[in-house]
Amino acid sequence: MSRRDPSSEENALDRLPKAKLNRESLRESLILAGYVRPYRARFFAGLATLFVSASCGLAFPFLSGALIDAALRPGGALVPGLGALNLTQVGLLLLGAVTIQILCSFNSALSFNRVGQSALADLRRDCYQRLISLPMAFFGQRRVGELTSRVSTDIAQIEGALIDALPSLCRQSVFLIGGITFIAITSGKLTVVILGTLPILIAAAVFFGRKLRGFSRETQDQLAATNTIVEETLQAIASVKAFANEAFELKRYELANSRVLAAALSAARWRAVFVAFFILAVFGGIVVVLWFGAGQLQRGEISAGELTRFALYMIFVAGAMGQAAELFSQIQKTVGATQRVRELLREPVEDSHRTEATPSDATLPTRLRGEVAFVGVSFRYPARLEMPVLRELSLAARPGEQIALVGPSGAGKTTLTALLLRFYEPESGQLMIDGRNAQDYPLRWLRGQMAIVPQDVLLFGGSIAENIVYGRPGASEAEVHEAARLANADEFIRAFPEGYATLVGDRGIKLSGGQRQRIAIARAILKNPAILILDEATSSLDSESEQQVQGALDRLMQGRTTFIVAHRLATVRKANKIAVIDGGRVVELGTHDELSARSDGLYRRLSALQFGQKDPDAPV
Predict the structure, then answer these.
(1) How far is 382 from 318, CA to CA, in rounded Å?
(2) What's CA 217's distance to the chain center, in Å?
(3) pLDDT tens across 606-619, in order?
């Protein structure tokens, strides 16, 4: 079992640097705003009520000061536009402002959540659709964890920004701008005092924000390492138990977990220092303002209500400044996440010009005859361009023929079937199907004419019936049962207490290898393909299971052009033609008897090795 250094494993999102906030990155982010467009009426309604709610919030300190002035002044408090109001009137006005704020806050929160969740559902759908439409070459160069992060972690970051950060940014902007404005209107001298403390608070927020982000990233890195250990251990749990390495794995996890704890505690210490400093700065500032304001109050320069109003507005401004660093960090992460999602959405899908059948495809037959020809095909995998796999290979199959592909490992047999399914395109040469270039067919229509039974069958985690009907969605229950019967699977399926509703478990783990293989065959039978690919379909089965599976395969191959990839030559003796592939070329072609008769052929040497016969060409 291969081991990776846990310290090198990083979370797919957190290990990437935050995006710089520039015109290009912001433009990329705004492109995703198109997902909000269908819900713009509710979005702007929520935005409007948010500003009303924030404005009512700003009215709270003003009316609180007026309430105190109304209690202390015989003539009541002067409220702009309303004149002098007594204590009761100011109290009712304050109660009305709070009520409006509550109602508007409820509406804005609900609106932003509805718009955000709807837009993100559309974005997740488009990301998933793009993922499953990308060519195999793309998946060959990406890790699954990275791709799933695009659909989960990155979109979760965008979700947090759209539902939480954006409303918070708007609200805190209103508090900051409105608070500073009202502070300046209330008292110019006190404004000068408070502005002297704000730079210290801003500098502290920036400094501690950077420190905390660094520790947060380190914590995420170490946490990702522990998750990797858990994932590896559970995936290879049979090996762990077989080698009695539970204690070793626990020690490995404890070491990684201790690193998480150390990083988390370091972050906690800096966060505690920041909180203490922030409290000191805010309340220290309030003390200074109250002390300075109390002197003005004593001299009659301001009223008690104005002093109260000023102190409350200062708290609003300090709170808005305190959240600035966190909001800026979240915006950076969101911009980075949107860039990665946009990169995914810009990836070209496979055969984007010829994916679906169109009205101009009236010449498409109802069903392929199954004539296949590889003409001078050369190919290299995009991730390994330095290693040619196929070299000017030519091979033809007539409709209904069984063509066996044999040869050493790495010769290019499975690659040939991948080209047939058009997972990849030939580097040079052509793949002809029924006399037409395979690229002339709509991709999904062409694959709908083919089926594959692989060596390692990975079933979906649903029921047996759901896995069989995957071959032709919408098939009737009777058709599913008939396909299972032809695949020699009906008997063992009905033996289960839940029959066809039996859940197969993750990747079909609840079924044996032979049972999974027969379900895969039933799926292929239900699809009724014109071209069939059998990729080592019986190589990992015991003798009894192989006999049952082979009987099902014989029925499946009738009347279909079949390509059989096999290392066990006993399974291909009845094939119409056997193509021996070595070094990316067809080096021999013929029937079993014809190839066995060649004294110096590769097929004969392979047969001698497998069947225990003496190789006549071997040295004495």
Answers:
(1) 55
(2) 20
(3) 877 766 554 444 43
Return the closest-CA partner of residue 8 out of 221, 235, 266, 256.
221
CB 402 within 8 A of CB 562: yes
Q: From the CA atom positions of the chain, what is the Rg in Å?
A: 36
Contact 263/229 with Cβ under 8 angstroms?
Answer: no
Residue with tokens 């196929």: 390
- Angle value at C-alpha 29, between 19 and 202, nearest 5 degrees: 55
Helix 513-527 and helix 477-486: axis angle, to 10°? 120
Confidence of residue 294 (pLDDT cuts 50, 70, 90): confident
CA distance 149 to 155: 8
| pLDDT per residue as tens digits for the range 131-143 | 888 888 787 777 6
Surface-to-core class of residue 93, CB atoms within 10 Å of its CB (0-12 exposed, 13-18 middle, 19+ buried): middle
pLDDT at 364: 81
Is the model's pLDDT at 355 over the cut of 70?
Answer: no
Amino acid in position 120: L
Instruction: Note the pTM of the prediction, 2 decimals.
Output: 0.71
Q: Nearest-CA neighbor of 521 among 483, 562, 563?
A: 483
Q: What is the DSSP string of 7-34?
A: GG---TTTTSPPPP-SHHHHHHHHHGGG
Given its phi and psi angles, is residue 456 left (phi above 0), alpha (psi -120 to 50 degrees) or beta?
Answer: beta
What kind and span of H or E run contains 159? Answer: helix 155-160
Tracing tokens 């520790």 back to the chain, one arrives at 215
CA–CA dist 18, 94 (Å, integer) = 43
Strands 372-380 and 428-433: antiparallel
The answer to whether 520 and 554 have CB atoms below 8 angstroms apart is no
368: left (phi over 0), alpha (psi -120 to 50) or beta: beta
H-type alpha helices, 37-151:
40-72, 87-133, 136-140, 144-149
Least confident window among 96-110, 283-297, 563-577 = 283-297
pLDDT, tens digit, 9 for 90 and up, residues 38-58: 888 998 999 999 999 988 888
Exposed/middle/buried for residue 337 (C-beta within 10 Å: 0-12, 13-18, 19+): buried
For the chain, domains (ranges, CATH) are 6-346 (1.20.1560.10), 357-449+529-620 (3.40.50.300), 457-528 (3.40.50.300)
DSSP-based three-state secondary structure for 77 = strand
- For residues 495-503, give the mean pLDDT: 89
Question: What's the mean per-residue pLDDT of the chain?
Answer: 80
Contact 66, 85 (CB under 8 A): yes
Amino acid at 580: V
Instruction: Work out the pLDDT band at 567, boundaries 50, 70, 90.
Output: confident
Beta-sheet pairing, 577-582 with 388-397 = unpaired
**In terms of residues, how long is the chain?**
620
Cβ atoms of 539 and 567 closer than 8 Å: yes
Q: How far apart are CA 9 and CA 13, in angstroms?
A: 12
Site of tokens 């995006």? 19
Contact 36, 115 (CB under 8 A): yes
